[in-house]
């Protein structure tokens, strides 16, 4: 399909949502993208969000449009934190400085081993969301990674790009 025949949905679902994670602002995102983040567990009712109109960041719970993305039977509190140790598989690509920083994070979070270059296993009590955020913070623009929670099948990543991101969402199905 050529670009001139592409359907422009920006009037129906404009990218107006921003998300604040560890003092870094991401977005703007469409409501459809926010729904995807909620389905993946990357957005919770406690996540700090704002619209592009310059509003202040507030918990997603305060936006009725975002509340509908979550199960109404769930209480409006942050999800319970994982407390039992979890097994992770982490694949990362980075420059030498990013690699050293990522290894320091893994070392601080639990027992880990590098099985082959860039492929790590980690045994940790850290929730996957926190692991993703810590790696994203130290790698910033220096690398990308994929995390698999081997116990639940949850997948998390940063830096894959839009095509890989879309393909991962289409292919990866975790058990419910």
How would you describe this protein?
There is one protein chain. It is built from 5 helices and 9 strands. The protein is an alpha+beta fold and 176 residues long. The strands form 2 sheets. The chain has a 5-stranded antiparallel beta sheet with strand order 6-7-5-8-9, covered by helices on one side. A 4-stranded antiparallel beta sheet has the order 2-1-3-4. The longest helix has 14 residues, at 96-109. It is globular, with a radius of gyration of 17 Å.
Layout of helices and strands, plus pairs?
Blueprint: E1 17-21, E2 24-29, H1 31-40, E3 48-51, E4 58-59, H2 64-67, E5 86-94, H3 96-109, E6 110-116, E7 119-124, H4 128-139, E8 143-149, E9 155-158, H5 162-171
Antiparallel strand pairs: 1-2, 1-3, 3-4, 5-7, 5-8, 6-7, 8-9
Helix pairs in contact: 3-4
């Amino acid at each position: 399909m050529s670009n001139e025949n592409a359907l422009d949905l920006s009037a129906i679902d404009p990218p107006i949502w921003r998300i604040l994670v560890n003092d870094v602002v991401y977005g703007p995102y469409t409501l459809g993208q926010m729904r995807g983040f909620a389905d993946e567990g990357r957005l919770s009712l406690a996540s700090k969000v704002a619209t592009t109109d310059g509003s202040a960041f507030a918990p997603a719970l305060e936006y009725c449009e975002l509340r509908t993305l979550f199960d109404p039977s769930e209480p409006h509190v942050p999800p319970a934190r994982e407390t039992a140790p979890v097994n992770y598989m982490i694949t990362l690509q980075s420059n030498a400085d990013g690699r050293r920083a990522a290894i320091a994070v893994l070392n601080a979070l639990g027992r880990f081993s590098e099985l082959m270059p860039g492929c790590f296993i980690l045994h940790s009590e850290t929730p996957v969301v926190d692991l993703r955020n810590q790696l994203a913070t130290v790698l910033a623009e220096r690398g990308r990674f994929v995390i698999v929670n081997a116990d639940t099948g949850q997948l998390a990543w940063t830096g894959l790009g839009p095509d890989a991101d879309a393909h991962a969402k289409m292919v990866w199905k975790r058990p419910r």
